[in-house]
Amino acid sequence: MKHKRADLIMAYAVEAQTSETPWDIFEESLNPLCSWHPCIKEPVWGGPCNYRLKPKTPVIDWNKVNYDIVPVRAENTQHVYYHEPNIGSRGLTLVTGKQIAWTGGDCPLPEGVVVECVFRDYFETTILEATELKWTHDGAQDDIIWVEVVGLGEGYSWGEVPGTLGTECWHGVSGEPCPDCIKEYHEDELVMALKATIAELRKELDEANGVIR
């Protein structure tokens, strides 16, 4: 007769082959009346606590994101990227609230991403999961003409892409965007940069003319 927690112990052993903290995939509860909490240390399989695998949250498929159309933001940076990451990143998210003109084609987003869109002959917006929409154009009233990402469907997460990005551009050096990322700047960021440049030029001109403000 096998151990009553044999399946959990086996899952723990498998996770331990690749992780120093295999308990991260478990939740524990003191008794059936208590709530479940993340397990923070090695389970005591013969103890009084109950254990279970953490419920799995579906993660969006980043391989199905059209990076040429849908901008992506990475954690710890204000940069927005319009090309596929070649070293990956933790904490990638799609930029929300940015209207994107759509001229037809394959769905640019994976299952689990919710969008707001406007159809050719409709005046009101519609909010649906991206994979539930018709993205091709055939001259019909329901052709999508613009779209913006709203967020994720219930139960979905952005997941995690292997590798780290920090504040580096995917194709450039730290802190400096490469030519492929010129489009990354939002209008407000560009305006701020222009204002700072104008202020600096004005200061230099004042100094040259002996003007004190």
List the helices and strands and how they pair.
Layout: H1 6-16, E1 26-29, E2 37-38, E3 50-53, E4 72-73, E5 80-81, E6 93-94, E7 100-101, E8 113-119, E9 126-129, E10 144-152, H2 187-209
Antiparallel strand pairs: 1-2, 1-3, 4-5, 4-6, 7-10, 8-9, 8-10
Brief account:
16% of the residues lie in helices and 18% in strands.
Question: What do you see in this structure?
Answer:
The protein has 213 residues and is of the alpha+beta class. The protein has two domains: 6-53, no CATH class; 57-185, no CATH class. The protein is 16% helix and 18% strand. The chain has two helices and ten strands, in the order αββββββββββα. It has helices spanning 6-16, 187-209; strands at 26-29, 37-38, 50-53, 72-73, 80-81, 93-94, 100-101, 113-119, 126-129, 144-152. A four-stranded antiparallel beta sheet has the order 7-10-8-9, with no helix packed on it. It has a three-stranded antiparallel beta sheet with strand order 2-1-3, with no helix packed on it. The longest helix has 23 residues, at 187-209. It is flat and about 85 Å long. Residues 162-188 have low confidence and may be disordered.
* Separate helix tally: 2
Based on DSSP secondary structure assignment, what is the total number of beta strands?
10
The share of residues in extended strands comes to: 15-25%
- Average pLDDT: 76
Number of domains: 2
Sheet of most strands: 4 strands, antiparallel
Q: Unreliable runs, pLDDT <50, ≥5 residues?
A: 162-188
Order of helices and strands: HEEEEEEEEEEH
Outline type:
flat
